[in-house]
Write a structure and sequence with these properties.
By secondary structure, this protein is α/β, with parallel strands linked by helices. Helices cover 29% and strands 24% of the residues. It has one domain: Rossmann fold, CATH 3.40.50. The model has no long low-confidence stretch (mean pLDDT 89).
Length: 193
Amino acid sequence: MSRLGDWRDTNELVYQPAEDSQLLLTHLRDRIDPEARLLDVGTGSGYIAAKLRDDPGATVVGVDVNPHACRQAAATGVPVVRGDLVAPFATASFDVLVCNPPYLPTTPDVARGDWMEHALNGGPSGRRVTNRLLDSAASVLRPGGRVYLLVSSLQDIDRVRDRAESNGFAVTELGRDDSFPFETLSVLELTTG
């Protein structure tokens, strides 16, 4: 099995790395300066945080609201803070934010209310968490900071792009994967002015 499969834990309370995680990581490795201070927002298992800590060697912190995710990510040796998105962090603390947010459109009538749903549920539009991140990310970025964001066609990527631009980000699509049956996944790079 691939390295990705070897990383997966049996903890059903934590989002384990999957193909979307790998797509995001693939587009990050060559773009992260080893001197960067990086925040992995919604770190889940800590897979992306640990990989970026190890190669290219960035200083990485993870954040997640799920206490089970915080424990699993901390077991990788990555410092983890339990908190909501960027709320626990001071202004201009990071050079880079990375996020694979919950993006599946979910209506309230199918919501289960457990930790795994929290990791997947993007609200009715799929953009609930993404919009909140786009509205707050710039506050913790240093000048010239960047956000790397995984998005799904289920969210309406143009609406995500518009929200990012309305928050002062320039948006570049770094890559996409349309091999999934019902969606296309894209990695966006958002840069501050």
